[in-house]
Amino acid sequence: MWGIVLHQLRITPHLENTLTSQENHEYLREKAGYFFLDDWCLASASGSDVLNYFQTQTSNDVHKLKKGQGQNTAIVDRKAKIIAIFSIHRTEEESVVMLVESVQKKNLLNHLNAFLFREDVSLASPDHFLLAIQGPRSSNIIEEFTKSSSPLPEKPNDICQFKFDEQPCLAINKSLTGEEGCILAFPAQIKETITQKLQKLEKIHPLIQIDPHTREIFRIEAGIPCYRKDMDEKNILPETGLEHSSVSYNKGCYIGQEVITRIKTYGAPNFALMGLIIEGDNLPLPGSKVQMDSKKIGTIKSSIFSPSLKKNIALAYIQKDHRSPGVDLNVTIEGAPYKVRTCLLPFYQPQTRKDHSKRLHNKALILYKDQEGLEQPVALLREAIELDPKNASAYEALGVFLSKQNKLDEAIALMKRLVEIDPEEIMAHTNLSIYYMQQGRIDEAELEKGEATALQFEKAVAENMAKKKTQDNAQKDIAEREQKISMFKQVLDIDPADQVANFGLGSVYYDLQNYEEALPPLVTVVKEYNDYSAAYVLLGKTLEKLSRREEAIKTFREGIAVASKKGDLMPLKEMQQKLNQLLDSVL
Domain 370-460: which CATH class? Predict the structure, then answer.
């Protein structure tokens, strides 16, 4: 109901300041919100050597970037301690812009200038201000606001250029809240114009200005560390967890590479940033020491109450022996007893527009079952279609509801729109046939019925052809896998504990759904090489397939502990997800 209630509140401008922080939070999660990024800024670099220069200075692979693409990256010293963490975006063949927190800009530019010798690279500080528009409805609002003919950047860190009042501007796809959104960069001289247009936009679109406290909630829920709050020049990059998105382990040399690579190869930092969910009403202060049995196991950084989790949460540096996610710990924080649960970041899992659209569609159907009126379900379905214009289920439900309201002309127009978007959508033609028949338009109804039948036939033919192709590929795949099985067994005849052969054999048997045969080699790998995270993943999945649930749960827990210590994020997240699913099914 919040989405509907808050939308009604926005219709009355004088009620704007009466919304609480929690209402602001809910509004952005449901619709959209904006805030000025006065604490962020842009820097730029251009010249024939710009990509080669940044390749030698930054931790990520700049050479992979095409025009319009961007990436998270970092600059560190020889000990891998942070100099600057930022994102870099390629705007032209020989030009990039950097998006960075203002407090890091000086360090960033000082370093880049210090290592410039004969390279053709010019650094600059564009006089721009930054505006973040975030939320599931943000893309439509940004398109309306900018009036730009250029499509918005679709992937994280992608960038595009557009003009606003004939002024050159930039849009960067960047989530600062856990929701979809962009950061827009405008010339400083038009800030007043932008502010006035935003205020007008609020009155006609589902958009609200987000206050600083609510913005901080979003930042922490999204697990985004802030310089000088959660990290500084004393931290090595792997302690922040940002190396998972900011480091390429396949590129050439850069300053600090040796230390970062060594940490990944041989283990994990002693302390690293992760999430804590805190029971009770007391919110620990930043800098508070976390202890267990008088031993320091962590330090609290940013902390806040999370409306999404209905709990206090914190970003905290936790010692590696206690970084397994989903574990309840009884600790003292600055001497006071607390119960906390460790958590992978982010606290809030981001949702796409399609996710939100499906959720609104389901909500509309539930409302329809629970009450007689159709106004709210219809409004929710319109929203769902606006978020995802290809949500055929939402079109179908909305068409049915409109026909129940005797709005057949609108229902027909809706189905025609769906046909324009997806001419092969059988349901759209079927519904058009029904609605035309209800209006007595027999010839048009028969025409649409015939179109639906033809599409159904074409679909059946295509599915049969795809099925045959799949069967042919499956036969070829089985032959290749049998060859691999023979090869792995030959190796194991020589060395029964060989890591690669056992894991490979277990993997092939798992893919062939021969789970009983997959089990022994995977057990061997885990027994002989108990720090091999990927083996725990596959062993747990195999036990799950064999309905040995308790053993699977135990394996995933052991694997999570191993992956946490090693900093193996991908297998860690997969095992955590599998463990949660198993525990939920037990409940």
Answer: mainly alpha
